[in-house]
Design a protein that fits this description.
Strand 7 and strand 8 form a beta hairpin. The strands form 2 sheets. A 7-stranded mixed beta sheet has the order 1-5-6-10-9-8-7, with helices on both faces. The chain has a 3-stranded antiparallel beta sheet with strand order 2-4-3. It is built from 11 helices and 10 strands. The radius of gyration is 42 Å and the shape is rod-shaped. Helix 1 runs parallel beside helix 4, helix 3 runs antiparallel to helix 4 and helix 5 crosses helix 10. Helix content is 41%, strand content 20%. The protein is an alpha+beta fold and 343 residues long. The protein folds into 2 domains: 90 residues, no CATH class; 230 residues, Bira Bifunctional Protein, Domain 2 (BirA Bifunctional Protein, domain 2, 2-Layer Sandwich). Bound molecules: 3,4-dihydroxyphenylalanine. The site of 3,4-dihydroxyphenylalanine has 12 residues, from strand 8, strand 9 and strand 10.
Length: 343
């Protein structure tokens, strides 16, 4: 039995020397130590049949060999595992110090939605209602009720899409028709904003789109003056752009206001030196506005001798361009993920 033990020890060491991975190592281990048929297990079982001194002597020798072999197995296993990790680190170039990538965002709001949400929050905080109106509008609400009769030249500047076979329907070229709808529905006093899509038969360029967004504002009350209008416009621009902006007021003509103004702001994209976003003038027409024409108040079903008001029609895509420094309006509808993921 002594010789048997020596033989096992030698064979075990030899077998382990030739092993190159943990799986093979375990196969060798099983060959010697498996419960049923392991060569070493067999010897331990045979010990029980011996008696007296021989059992004691061979028993302690067998235990010594067993512990020794198990130690050899343990340290070989550790070596192989370390070598495995080193190999993976080299072959697959895992840098365990590299910071984890942030999770990809699953979705987020479009910059125009962000701007409209901010505008609506701002105006609701000042007591305005948020209203909606139809995109397919009647000629009456789009023009007639806004003091733009059929023959009026102002119709030309609107580049309207008319609907084939339905001469009295148009894709609304502005959000102003909702002024009339709001007065008819809610009467006065009234404070409301309307954000939505409008359509024009435009040749597109860096500052023009055929489909774009406006936010209409309307205040009807007693004794409304131009200072109410200017104060509200300042509140609007500072609230959305969150910086001081330089503005200028010019006379502007719109048949539904009297007097009418163009409120321009110094271009924030180029700081006034001229770029595509400001048509190279340094100034951006931001908010056309004015005091509501008495005929419009009348079309809204109210008495112009009692009620006054102001209105404005903000080009919200242009405002978004100023807010985010976007040099071309067409980016906003292009559906380019590289552009959109910046917001
Ligand atoms: N609806 C006009 C347009 O799209 C803009 C406008 C001008 C709206 C003056 C207003 C206003 O409410 O008072 O060109």
């Amino acid at each position: 039995m002594k010789q048997q033990l020596q033989k096992i020890e030698q064979e075990f060491k030899k077998a382990i020397d030739g092993v190159g991975d943990v799986l093979k190592l375990d196969e060798v281990y099983q060959r010697f130590f498996s419960r049923k048929s392991g060569e070493m297990t067999q010897i331990m079982k045979n010990l029980k049949e011996l008696s007296g001194e021989a059992r004691k002597e061979l028993g302690s020798l067998a235990n010594e060999v067993k512990t020794n072999l198990e130690e050899i197995y343990g340290s070989k296993k550790q070596d192989l595992e370390h070598a495995g990790w080193d190999r993976i680190a080299v072959e697959e170039q895992i840098d365990v110090t590299e910071p984890k990538l942030p999770p990809k965002r699953k979705g987020h709001l479009h910059p125009m939605t962000i701007v409209h949400n901010e505008l609506e929050d701002l105006f609701t905080s000042m007591g305005f209602m948020v209203l909606d109106g139809p995109e397919l509008e009647s000629d009456y609400y789009a023009f007639e009720a806004l003091n733009i009769p059929k023959t009026h030249p102002a119709r030309e500047s609107m580049d309207t899409f008319y609907v084939k076979g339905k001469p009295s329907w148009v894709m609304r070229p502005h959000t102003s028709p909702v002024q009339i709808r709001a007065m008819q529905k809610y009467g006065a006093p009234l404070r409301t904003v309307v954000s939505g899509r409008v359509f024009r038969n435009e040749a597109t360029d860096a500052s023009h789109e055929h489909t774009f967004y406006q936010m209409e504002g309307l205040v009807v009350d007693k004794d409304i003056s131009i200072s109410n209008l200017i104060g509200t416009m300042q509140e609007l621009l500072q609230g959305v752009l969150k910086k001081d902006v330089e503005v200028r007021l010019r006379p502007g003509y719109f048949p539904f206001v009297e007097p009418g103004f163009e409120l321009d702001m110094k271009c924030l994209v180029c700081s006034g030196t001229g770029c595509g976003a400001c048509k190279h003038s340094g100034w951006v027409e931001t908010v056309p506005c004015g005091l509501i024409h008495p005929r419009v108040i009348k079309a809204g079903g109210l008495d112009p001798k009692v009620w006054t008001g102001f209105a404005f029609g903000l080009g919200s895509m242009r405002l978004a361009m100023q807010k985010y420094g976007i040099e071309d309006i067409r980016h906003l509808h292009a559906g380019n993920m590289e552009f959109l993921e910046q917001f």
